[in-house]
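::Amino acid chain::
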Amino acid sequence: MTAQHLQSTVALHNGVQMPWFGLGVFKVEEGAELIEAVKKAIQHGYRSIDTAAIYGNESGVGQAIAEALKENNLKREELFVTSKAWTADLGYEETLAAFDTTLNKLGLEYLDLYLIHWPKAGKYKGAWKAMEELYAAGRIKAIGVSNFQIHHLEDLMQDAKVKPMVNQVEYHPRLTQVELKAFCEKHGIQLEAWSPLMQGQLLDNPVLTEIASAKGKSVAQVILRWDLQNGVITIPKSTKENRIIENSSIFDFELSNDEMDRISALNEDVRVGPDPDNFDF
């Protein structure tokens, strides 16, 4: 277990250091609530913010980052900012244009991580070529994918000059993605969890409740700790300051091997998001 505190990082296969823990802003609309959530997260020690073009909130995230850097006397390079290219923007020219739009909205000179949001058939290889060029030019520090299954990764890597550094996927105790995780580990691709709390559906689970009670922690904290001890980066979403603090307060306890196994045994291969093999947005 390498994550000792909120700002602990893992080295991606190109040497870039990515925080183990961050704030996700999926479905948080532009406006004061979004800006306040991002600023509070940074104030309380978060150093990774994850957004996407399709979330429609890159401008607000950018504003919050600019204000937070000033207010907390931080340098840009102390933050790790991720965004993603939507399926409608996949393809060589399309992705180059989409990246410029994203960077302008965020008001940044570079991105730390840029991901292909979904593996749209026939489109992601052109997008990857664009991302490889942006990476080579130093406009992105690391490039990766999201929601890619093993066969998508194998197909992409057949022609890729640069191997994906990250694969961000739905990952929680009901969807442990064992084979995909093993494949990514074998190829040096860092797995990252979205929807780690299964959109709240796990908070009443008796096994998790029992472990949380024994640890004096919340169920959410137990799940997020399980992510990290499995070597998976995690980015829970919250707009409430108390929850932002609570989610990140997971570095003062450890799950035993038995507890880890009991949580992993909850797997049922159940998704709350779309199946990447039947996704046609």
Q: What stands out?
A: DSSP finds ten helices and ten strands in the chain. The chain has a mean pLDDT of 97. The first helix runs from residue 32 to 43. Residues 82 and 252 are 27 Å apart (CA to CA).
